[in-house]
């Protein structure tokens, strides 16, 4: 890399809302005052992350006309994403591709979608022409990327790719009307349910293996006994975060289950 310090790291800093613009201005001024303004043009980008109105975001960037490398995302948490309307995402993509804004330095150059975990939603994001996806399942994104519909248009980014430049692609080929190529609503729902259960199963397995919950519960039990918890159990204290006997019993049941499932592999 030809940067002054040889760094290859590029960072997108996301502020919550447009009224956090003071942070952007202060950060920008601090970088310049330390003589490292090259970072602002090559290594640092910006994003407003909490779905503020698009006109308010555009107005903020116009006020901060020294800022470049602007990303804009849209989405919801992964549990709500399958039911989230993509109207706002579509509007962001249209703004990114509007030729009348190409000459404006501080305008949206990249669009990302979050948090996209289901395969059917990953395909929808790709068809919406996003530049990036935030997901808990990168293997699903990779598999969809290799499908015939997307393999000529999308690939994984590399160090040589600039995260600030628009990437031009050829218009997609018209899709042939094939029943096999268009899954039914029922099939989409079933596939989504299977992937959701798979995500839950992975989460539970990771939780059981790490035993984070068990460590917390038994540590709380030790603290209770060492501090005379049972002697003072008749006194109610709303600020006490100690666990109940039922929770301890449940923890012991979970521990037994973990030993039965994972005991042979340890």
From TrEMBL:
Entry keywords, A to Z: Disulfide bond, Lyase, Magnesium, Metal-binding
Catalytic activity as recorded in UniProt: an N-(acyl)-sphingosylphosphoethanolamine = an N-(acyl)-sphingosyl-1,3-cyclic phosphate + ethanolamine
InterPro entries reported for this sequence: PLC-like_Pdiesterase_TIM-brl
A biological process from GO: lipid metabolic process
An annotated Gene Ontology molecular function: phosphoric diester hydrolase activity
Gene3D superfamilies named among the record's database cross-references: Phosphatidylinositol (PI) phosphodiesterase
Protein name: Uncharacterized protein
Protein's organism: Euroglyphus maynei
Lineage: Eukaryota, Metazoa, Ecdysozoa, Arthropoda, Chelicerata
């Amino acid at each position: 890399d030809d940067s002054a310090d040889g760094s290859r790291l590029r960072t997108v800093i996301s502020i919550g809302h447009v009224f956090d613009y003071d942070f952007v201005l202060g950060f920008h001024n601090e970088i310049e005052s330390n003589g490292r303004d090259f970072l602002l043009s090559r290594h640092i980008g910006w994003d407003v992350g909490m779905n503020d109105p698009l006109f308010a975001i555009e107005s903020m960037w116009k006020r901060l006309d020294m800022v470049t490398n602007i990303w804009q995302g849209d989405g919801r948490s992964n549990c709500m994403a399958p039911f989230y309307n993509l109207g706002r995402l579509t509007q962001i993509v249209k703004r990114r591709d509007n030729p009348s804004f190409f000459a404006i330095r501080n305008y949206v150059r990249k669009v990302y979608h979050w948090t996209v975990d289901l395969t059917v939603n990953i395909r929808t994001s790709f068809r919406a022409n996003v530049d990036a996806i935030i997901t808990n399942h990168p293997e699903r994104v990779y598999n969809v990327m290799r499908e015939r519909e997307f393999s000529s248009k999308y690939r994984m980014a590399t160090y040589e790719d600039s995260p600030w430049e628009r990437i031009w692609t050829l218009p997609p080929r018209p899709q042939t009307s094939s029943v096999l190529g268009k899954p039914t609503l029922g099939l989409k729902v079933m596939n989504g349910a299977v992937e959701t259960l798979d995500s839950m199963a992975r989460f539970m397995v990771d939780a059981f293996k790490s035993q984070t919950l068990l460590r917390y519960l038994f540590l709380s039990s030790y603290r209770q006994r060492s501090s005379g918890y049972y002697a003072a159990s008749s006194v109610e204290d709303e600020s006490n975060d100690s666990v109940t006997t039922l929770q301890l019993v449940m923890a012991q049941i979970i521990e037994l289950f973990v030993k039965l499932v994972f005991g042979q592999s340890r």
